[in-house]
Amino acid sequence: MSTSETLRDTGSATLEEAPGATDEAGKSGPAAPFQQPAPISNSLTVNVRVDPRGLARAIDPLPDGFEVQAWFDHLCRRYPTAFHPLSGGRGCFYLSLDEFDAARATYA
Fold first, then answer.
1. CA distances from 30 to 63, 66, 86 (A)
2. pLDDT tier at 17 (50, 70, 90 boundaries)?
3. Which of 50, 51, 53, 52 minimizes the C-alpha distance to 76?
4. I need a surface site. Which of 10, 42, 60, 93 has the fewest CB within 10 A?
5. What's the predicted TM-score (pTM) here?
């Protein structure tokens, strides 16, 4: 007995039989496949590596002439909610290109 037959025998709905799954003509059918959302073209992810003491050791992208720790501190002060810590001493800033350019322009 197949899984679909087992589910039908127990009264459970399969994906094809899920309530609310309709095609353009309003007929019931399988649900539409998942589609990845389009990437946001004006966004930038700034990747950070942090040592166990909490000091930034690598940051990418790092504009020319900028020190790693000073640039990290500047981004943290300017966009405190944009940093997302990750496991393994890593983290990311999720910024728009305009925010990144503004931070670079105001870095002293």
1. 49, 54, 37
2. very low
3. 50
4. 10
5. 0.60
